[in-house]
Amino acid sequence: MNNKLIPLSVPNISGNEWEYVKDCLDTGWISSAGGFVGKFEEMVADYVGAKFGVATVNGTCALHISLQLSGVKRNDYVIIPNITFVATANSVKYTGADPILIDVDLNNWQMNLDLLEEFLTKETYGNLKGDCILKDDGRCIRVIMPVHVQGNMTDMDRLIRIADQHNLLIIEDAAEALGTTYKSKHSGTFGLMGCFSFNGNKIISTGGGGVIVSDDELLAKKAKHITTTAKVDPMSYYHDEIGYNYRMVNVLAAIGVAQMEVLDSFVRRKKEIGAFYKEHLSGVGDIGFQTVLDDVDHNNWLFTIKTSHQTELLKHLNDNKIISRPFWMPMNKLPMYKDCLYVVTGSDACEELLKTCLAIPCSTSITDDELERVVVEIKNALY
Ligand SMILES: Cc1ncc(COP(=O)(O)O)c(C=O)c1O
């Protein structure tokens, strides 16, 4: 059997990327000005059904700016799930706030809403201004940041209800979930702002990049302003606040425009890959999958399986040039976040997922033969 390396999840450059990048190079519009940035922002916003989009250097700074603009300040709290990529927690710390970590649901791997609700009901109160205050230390919780882990989504109606009851804003970390919908509404459009990432392993990639989406014109304008050094007019160097140089450059936006043109076919391919693995791996050893609510149409971003044979399987696949990786390290296991408040009861789902989950190759460019090779090697390792 062919022994070529099968990567985990890599960019698929097969559309107009070369042509659009060449246009940037030919015209000299390679930097922060140029038509592709606005076009990319518009395409992402239109695709998800948001009114505005603001392109950024990466998804992490999209999260940082969204939190800052939602009013998160030093010593506040932001609620996040304990399993996520570290950027979610880091973006909270950039604002001077601290994350409160919530264990995830063992079935769908999203923030555990029972735990979230119980925690907010028992451990917080609303002050006279209506702020949600942690009883323990009197500090304010401002935002819930759901992370659509692996591109899946939780029960958003319930999450919104919980957030409303406690006067909390929602900022979505939709980095992994472009193309996923809940009740036909796109991820990223449920809260005040939603953030996407376009790094190399995402469903579409600009190499590095992010977009903030929002329906709030003022917030979108502020996001654009603060991510472009808060410069007030094109001529003079007058900046009216401490801004950030977080803008996406035109060359990368050009790649993004080409990628957006084929996003529908990428989502289709990811779903085919997910369906193939589910069909051929169901009943193999003790392999299990992330559950998906009926209301969720999942983009199948990073196909991940769960098995008690994680260690052997990871070794066997990687030895056979089939790149596979364990799940995100839970935030409470990282030195910077080990002392954060972690809401968990009984058995720790993040701990269990850390020990049992592994992501397997699912690039949109993977061939059917390669998919079969992955399945064969998983069976070889388990039997
Ligand atoms: C859940 C999550 N949040 C945030 C990010 C950060 O995005 P970026 O790498 O574009 O900064 C990523 C991806 O890398 C992610 O998977």
Q: How would you portray this structure in words?
A:
The chain has helices at 17-27, 35-48, 59-69, 87-94, 113-123, 156-165, 217-227, 250-261, 263-281, 310-319, 349-356, 368-382; strands spanning 52-56, 77-81, 98-102, 124-126, 132-134, 140-144, 169-173, 181-182, 185-186, 193-197, 210-214, 288-289, 296-297, 304-306, 325-326, 342-343, 357-359. Helix 1 (17-27) runs antiparallel to helix 8. The mean pLDDT is 97. It is globular and about 65 Å long. It folds into 2 domains: 17-261, 3-Layer(aba) Sandwich (Aspartate Aminotransferase, domain 2), CATH 3.40.640.10; 263-382, Aspartate Aminotransferase, domain 1 (Alpha-Beta Complex), CATH 3.90.1150.10. Strand 5 and strand 6 (140-144) form a beta hairpin. It has 383 residues and is of the alpha/beta class. It contains 12 helices and 17 strands. The strands form 3 sheets. Strands 1, 2, 3, 4, 5, 6, 7, 10, 11 and 16 form a 10-stranded mixed sheet that branches. A 4-stranded antiparallel sheet has the order 12-14-17-15. A 3-stranded antiparallel sheet has the order 9-8-13, with no helix packed on it. Pyridoxal-5'-phosphate (PLP) binds at residues 58-60, 84-85, 87-88, 147, 173, 175-176, 197, 199, 210.
Précis, in short:
Helices cover 37% and strands 15% of the residues. It has helices at 17-27, 35-48, 59-69, 87-94, 113-123, 156-165, 217-227, 250-261, 263-281, 310-319, 349-356, 368-382; strands at residues 52-56, 77-81, 98-102, 124-126, 132-134, 140-144, 169-173, 181-182, 185-186, 193-197, 210-214, 288-289, 296-297, 304-306, 325-326, 342-343, 357-359.
